[in-house]
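pasting for ref
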Amino acid sequence: MNSWLCPVRLPSWRKIKETSIFGVGPSQKSKLLEVGKGDFLAIYLLRPVDGFIAICEVISDPYEGHDNVWGKGRYPHRVKIKTLSKFLRSTKNAIPLSSCLGHNVVEEGLTIEPYLHRVALAKISHRSFQCLKHQFE
């Protein structure tokens, strides 16, 4: 079982919640193929929220889909997910990235958004994921 950081914008998060599907574009297909049933996706909303708002469980193997979930055939490489209500927050109560990846992110004044802008999936350590789960409690 692996855990993944998934930075998304608010409109994409709305579609993910509505459809229970997480998708990526062709350039991230190989990364998505590493995701399996039982893995967890830690949903991180980019600006203006800048924080974790959900943990979802992957409930399907990766597949290719062409229905217009996000419009214009975007993000055809997909997995079905289940949002875990225990790990769901409002955008006003998002968990900062520094809570699980270290306080030096805040102390050094790093701006996270530019680094996550082109990232669709990034594996996170078991320790960081456990710390994040604890933040939701």
